[in-house]
Amino acid sequence: MSPWSHESNSSAIEWLLEEDNPSVRYLTLTELLGISSQRKEPEETRSLIPVWAPVKKILAKQKRNGGWDDGRTWYLPKYKATVWQLLILSQTGIDPKTAHVRRMLDYSFRFQMPSGGFHSGMTPDLACDWAILAGCLNGNVTAALCRLCRTRDPRVRKAVDHLLWLQEPDGGWGCRSFGYHRRDRHSCFMGTICALDGLIEYSRRVQTKKVDRAVKEACEFLLMHRLYKADHHELKIVRNEYTKLWAPWFVGYNILRGLRAITRAGIVNDERMEDALRLLAAKRNSRGRWIRETPWPSTTYSSFGQVGAEDKWVTLNALLVLKETFARK
C-alpha cells in the first residue's frame, strides 16, 4: 500500500482540520485536499487567521508605518524585526488583502536595492551590507512576497533576477559576505533552500526558462547530497540538525524543507531522495503524526510549536511530501 493511501492519513487529516489552528486548517483544505480558496469553508477559515492568538500577537506589535522595528534595520532584533514577521506571516495563509499585510509589504520594499537584492539595514554603507550577497535572506524574502501575491510586481521580478545572479556554479547558493564563501564557491544548504523556495514560489505563478533552469540546478545540488549527506565524504550526514523536523521555516535547513522543495519542483522518482523519504517515514508515530524536533525560537512574539510534541505544521508538510511523491507515481 502506498504511504499516501495509508489508512492513518485520514485520521491525521481530521486532526489537521480541527478548528484550534485556522492556518493549518486553511492550508490543509486548500493545499492538501485541493479545495478552492474561493469555496465557503476555506474562505471562512481564512478570515479567522488574523484573530488566531499567535498571529494576533504578531499583528498587535506592528507599528503605524507597517514595520516592527526602528526603521533603520528590518533584520534586528532577530525574530522581532520586520523581516521575520514577513517570513512567518507569509506561511500562515493570511489574506494578503488584509490591511496589516499591505502595510507590511509596502514597508518591506523600502529595503530593496536598485539591483533587486534586499539589504539588512545593519550598516550605513549599503554597498557593504552582507545581505545583498546572501541567498538565504533574498530567497526567503522573495518566497514571502510571492506567497503574498506580489509575484507580478516588477520589483519581485528584479528580486528573482538578483537571485539568479547569486546562484553558484554548483547550482546552490551561499553568502559571499561570510567566511569560507569568500574563498570558494561551494554552496551551503541554508542559502540553497531559501533561494530555491523563492524561485519555486515564483515559478508556480510565472513561467520562465531561466528560473526553471535555476530550480532544476538547485534541486540537483540537494539531490547530489541525498538532501542531507556530504557528497565527498562517504555520504556521511552533514549535520545532525538537518535530520530534525520542524516547520514553518525561517532560516535553516532540514530534510522536510528539502523534500517539500524537491517535490514541489516536480521531482518524485529520483532514487537520491529515498534516504530522506525513509527517514521521514520512520519518524511518523503510531497515530500517523509527526513530532516537532527543534525548539521554536524563544525570542519571537508567538510560538508556532513545542519541541517534543505532535506538531500540526510538521505533519501537514510531511503529508504534502507524501501526496506529491506517491500520488504522482
Briefly, what is this?
This protein has 329 residues and is an all-alpha fold.
Question: How do the strands and helices of this protein lay out in sequence?
Answer:
Layout: H1 8-16, H2 22-32, H3 40-47, H4 53-60, H5 82-89, H6 99-108, H7 135-147, H8 154-166, H9 189-203, H10 209-224, H11 255-264, H12 274-282, H13 312-326
Helix pairs in contact: 1-13, 2-3, 2-13, 5-6, 5-7, 7-8, 7-9, 9-10, 9-11, 11-13
Description:
- It is a single chain.
- The chain has helices at residues 8-16, 22-32, 40-47, 53-60, 82-89, 99-108, 135-147, 154-166, 189-203, 209-224, 255-264, 274-282, 312-326.
- With 329 residues, it is mainly α.
Largest sheet: none
Mean pLDDT: 93
- In which range does the helix fraction lie? 40-55%
Poorly predicted regions: none
Radius of gyration: 19 Å
The number of helical runs is: 13
Helix and strand run: HHHHHHHHHHHHH
Number of strands: 0
Class by alpha and beta content: mainly alpha
Question: What key attributes describe this structure?
Answer:
mainly alpha, 13 helices, globular, about 45% helix, about 325 residues, single chain
